[in-house]
Write a structure and sequence with these properties.
Oligomer: single chain
Structural class: alpha+beta
Strand content: 25-35%
Distance between the termini: 44 Å
Helix content: 10-25%
Number of helices: 4
Shape: globular
C-alpha cells in the first residue's frame, strides 16, 4: 500500500513539473520553440521554422539612439521593454565595418539602404561572397515571403515590409547555384534562409564547417526549399535562441542587420 501511494505521489510530482516546464512566468502555455537541431549527410545544423502569415518577423539594425545593436542581447532587451520576448534571432546579411548593411535594407516598410548593384571590387583571390552571382534578396510584402535574384527584384516597383540583400543565391527555382563545386574545400560556418513550397521560411545555421554545395543541398534536398539565399559565413554568422542556450557574438565586433522572431505580448 505504501509503495503504491509513493508511486502515485511521484506521478503527480512529475505531472506538475511537466506542466511548469511548458508554462511561462504568468502561467500561460509557452510557445513552441521554432528552432531544432538537424543533421544531413554528416553535417549538423540548427533550423528555425517561421510561418510568415502568423509570426511577427522583424529586422533590426539601429536602436532608439541611432546606434547599431551589434549584439543579440540588445535586440532582446528592446523587445522585452515592449512586453514581448525574442524567440530567436540571426544575422541577416553582410555588412560594412561600421555595421551598415552591404545592400538593400527595408525595416518596417522604410528603405534605409538602397539595393547594391555595384560591380565586384578588384581584388586578388576569390570574388567576395556578396558579389558572387546571382546576388539575391529576401523580402516580405503583402503577398508573403520571397527569395529572388536581385536583378529580378529590381524589374518592378514593390511595396515591401522588410527586405535584406545578400549573396550568392544558394538555390534558384529548385536548382543548386551552378557556381558551387561539389566537394569544395572552401568550408566554414554558414547561415541562410530558404522558402519551402508550403510557404514556411527556414532559417538555417551550420554548427560546423560546410561548403556552399553541401549547404545548398541541405536546403533543396532535405528542407525542400526551391529557393534559398546565403546570408553570411565564418565569423559573421550567429544565432540567438534561449531554448538551445545560444546567444552568439560576432568576432567582427558585432552584427549589422539582424532578423528576429518576436513572440506574442506577455501578460
Amino acid at each position: 500500500m505504501l509503495r503504491t501511494m509513493f508511486a502515485f505521489a511521484l506521478f503527480l510530482a512529475g505531472a506538475f513539473a511537466a506542466r511548469a516546464e511548458t508554462s511561462d512566468a504568468g502561467g500561460a502555455p509557452a510557445p513552441a520553440d521554432p528552432c531544432t537541431r538537424q543533421s544531413f549527410e554528416g553535417a549538423a545544423y540548427i533550423v528555425c521554422d517561421v510561418d510568415p502569415a502568423k509570426a511577427d518577423l522583424r529586422l533590426f539594425w539601429k536602436d532608439a539612439g541611432g546606434k547599431p545593436y551589434r549584439r543579440f542581447s540588445g535586440v532582446a532587451d528592446t523587445v522585452s521593454s515592449e512586453g514581448h520576448r525574442l524567440l530567436f534571432a540571426m544575422n541577416a546579411g553582410m555588412y560594412r565595418e561600421d555595421f551598415t548593411p552591404m545592400g538593400l535594407y527595408v525595416e518596417d516598410g522604410r528603405e534605409l539602404i538602397p539595393a547594391n548593384t555595384e560591380a565586384p571590387p578588384k581584388v586578388s583571390g576569390p570574388v567576395p561572397n556578396f558579389y558572387k552571382t546571382p546576388n539575391g534578396i529576401f523580402f516580405l510584402d503583402e503577398a508573403g515571403p520571397h527569395i529572388i535574384p536581385t536583378e529580378d527584384f529590381l524589374k518592378q516597383e514593390r511595396k515591401v515590409r522588410l527586405a535584406t540583400q545578400s549573396g550568392p543565391m544558394l538555390v534558384i527555382a529548385g536548382k543548386i547555384n551552378p557556381i558551387f563545386i561539389p566537394g569544395s574545400s572552401d568550408r566554414t560556418r554558414r547561415n541562410g534562409v530558404g522558402l519551402s513550397a508550403d510557404g514556411t521560411l527556414r532559417f538555417v545555421i551550420s554548427e560546423g564547417d560546410v561548403n556552399f554545395h553541401d549547404f545548398a543541398s541541405f536546403f533543396r534536398d532535405e528542407l525542400k526549399c526551391p529557393d534559398a539565399l546565403f546570408l553570411d559565413g565564418g565569423n559573421g554568422t550567429g544565432l540567438y535562441n534561449p531554448a538551445l542556450g545560444r546567444n552568439d557574438t560576432s568576432w567582427h565586433g558585432g552584427y549589422g542587420p539582424i532578423l528576429g522572431l518576436v513572440g506574442e505580448k506577455q501578460g
